[in-house]
Amino acid sequence: MEISPDSVMIFTWGYFHINATIVYTWVVMALLIIVSLLVTQHLSAGFALSRWQNFLETMVDSMRNQIREIILQRPEPYLSFIGTLFLFISISNFLSIVPGYYPPTSSFSTTAALAICVFFAVPFFSITQSGLAGYLKYYVKPSMFMLPFNILGVISHTLTLAIRLFGNIMSGTLIGAILISVIPFFVPAVMEVLELLIGQIQAYIFAILAAVYIASATRAGRNEE
To answer: What is the dihedral of CA 122, 125, 131, 135, to 10 degrees?
Structure first.
């Protein structure tokens, strides 16, 4: 039994290796792009909306409202970044019901990459909203003595994001595989449903925490204005 999709080699040529993490990340990205293109091909501004457009608008409105409640600003600048994070993690975890599929989020390299995106997004959004001086003031609040602690706090936020998502998805996949191999159908089926639920909750938590970290940095700069 493979614990991580990093160790599952799909293609090897000399020193060149493509593992399951890379392949299934491409699969999820391709799926998101194809569905987005199909759904947005025939958008209507009238009252008669297609089922897919209704679904898309409901989902985008829900994301927009959640971001607005957390950041307490216009959600549009953050919607594409936080929404993409949520959709990628959600679809990655949801496809775990497909036999032979390894969720990329059960690899620490994937969760670390997502956390690093948040790490760089926080200063990016803060600087665009409050300027460089406003962002740097975030690190010296409430006094200069807090500078090293605030820097450690930002680093720990990134590690927490990566480890939380990796640990939950990897352990869920591992426990489900063990149960399927040792006991009859019913309990593994329940575990699969539970794993799907946990996967969606983890996608939500990751997106919410990203929004909270961005909100914390952007508000610190704005409060100084």
So the answer is: -20
